[in-house]
Amino acid sequence: MTTREVDKRVTAHRQTEGGGFIVRRPLPTAGMELIDPFLLIDEMGPADYAPGEAVGAPDHPHRGFETITYMIDGEFEHEDSAGHRGTIRSGDVQWMTAGGGIIHSEMPAERIRKNGGRIHGFQIWANLPAKLKMTRPRYQEVAAANIPEGKSADGRARVKVVAGEALGARAVIDTHTPIVFQDWQLEGGADVTIPLPSDHQALVYVFEGAALIGDRGEEIADGQLALLGAGDTLRLRAAEGKRARLLLLAGVPLREPVARYGPFGMNSEREIREALAARRSGRMGEITRTAQVESRE
Ligand code: FE2
Fold this sequence. Notes:
This protein is mainly beta.
């Protein structure tokens, strides 16, 4: 058994996205352009919006990868050109395979836009291999109550398993390629070691407190992302009197050329031009809105 140690670390930068919402972005960032198969990690907020202030990302396309939205706090409403529509609340996850192309909108819930409120969550883009880039769009939504949870024997480490497996909990989501997506909470003194397949590339992003990673116990603090080195186990700890909350992401690297432009992630510039042309000509579809939705806007 080899424990994975921290190979490289970066600190998330603040950025304004979409219609103007605030994100912390550890990937891509200077010195960390891509962590194959992950293209992007955005922490939305945490932001407390005043009435009329909360903004989201109105109708926009995606092609070539999967978007995973995980809410920590607040509510997002979404609609897409394949006819899916819903609200993601605290703890819920939406796993959307954009595949060959989809148009969607992602907006803070109407009550938050109107009355103000807190938004905190994640959006992660997981790349698709060339052979699946043009796959049919797919949509999986799992309510918080249905996300399996595991905990260590001493109860100091708890994990919500969105994808993968840990501490006896196994994800209910189906992924196109092997992906690990877990929300870990560590209380002071927590010390757990879990298996993590050696063919996965893995990272940890801490978004509360500070965690100690690996046998070396390198401290990764709030807003920092650590790319992990080779190994087949992961050790997570929190120092006595400290706590941490972090995302563990891992996947088998695709090792294919990456051409990205805005909301598209393809293998070549030619495919990016094709995606732009498909969007312009309406071949990615449009969101069909009901009268009720239109009157809201
Ligand atoms: Fe999007």
